[in-house]
Amino acid sequence: MKLTNFILASIIMLSGHLMYAQKAEVNTEKSHIEWIGKKIGGQHEGTIQLKSGYFDLKDDKIVSGNFIVDMTTMTNTDLKDEGYNQKLIGHLKSDDFFGVEEYPTATFVVTESSRFSNGKATVSGNITIKNKTENISFVVERKGNEYTIRIDIDRSKFDVRYGSNSFFDNLGNKAIDDIFTLDITLVVN
């Protein structure tokens, strides 16, 4: 009788554990985000830091997740002249672009995902920048405890208007692409 009770208790505990998702905390020190913004005749590049993040895995599928990006950490990596570098970063943090003083963070919340197949899954979710939310989808590639993502984001959907042909006519060679790219590497503990 004791053996039967032990076996039943073990089965219940094991099946209960399998029904729940496994939480994967992102190591913000080892993870990184690189951004690329393009304009006619060139581009600028830089980094931005993840403030916090996690996702839940169940049945080899990301079932939920929440990520917060610290917009105050934005840097530029292509301009070597310190004056021009700081001028660009100051402008990107200003109300002309991301209004970092009023909106110091951006967020992404997972809403759905496919199962991983050959190390890849498609993830959808809501990204919020400047208090405006849009649904986006992208491919996540997994190698061990590292997840890589490339996301193209249309800044015009978040009211980031400066130099945008979506809002202004006759910008000519002063136009800045609406699409900016994030290359993200997430390392989980």
From the structure above, extract its key features:
single chain; 189 residues; alpha+beta; Lipocalin; 8-stranded antiparallel barrel; 9 strands; 16% helix
What's the helix and strand layout?
Layout: H1 2-19, E1 22-25, E2 32-39, E3 42-58, E4 61-76, H2 82-93, E5 105-113, E6 120-129, E7 132-143, E8 146-154, E9 176-187
Antiparallel strand pairs: 1-3, 2-3, 2-9, 3-4, 4-5, 5-6, 6-7, 7-8, 8-9
Order of helices and strands: HEEEEHEEEEE
Q: Uncertain regions: pLDDT < 50 for 5+ in a row?
A: 14-18
CATH superfamily: Lipid/polyisoprenoid-binding, YceI-like
CATH fold-level label: Lipocalin
Termini Cα gap:
41 Å
Oligomer: single chain
Strand content: over 45%
Task: Walk me through the structure.
The chain has 189 residues and is α+β, with helices and mostly antiparallel strands. It has a single domain, classed as Lipid/polyisoprenoid-binding, YceI-like (Lipocalin). The protein is 16% helix and 51% strand. It is built from two helices and nine strands. The protein has helices at 2-19, 82-93; strands at residues 22-25, 32-39, 42-58, 61-76, 105-113, 120-129, 132-143, 146-154, 176-187. It has an eight-stranded antiparallel β-barrel with strand order 2-3-4-5-6-7-8-9. A hairpin with a 2-residue loop joins strand 3 and strand 4 (61-76). The protein starts with a helix and ends with a strand. The relative contact order is 0.17. Residues 14-18 have low confidence and may be disordered.
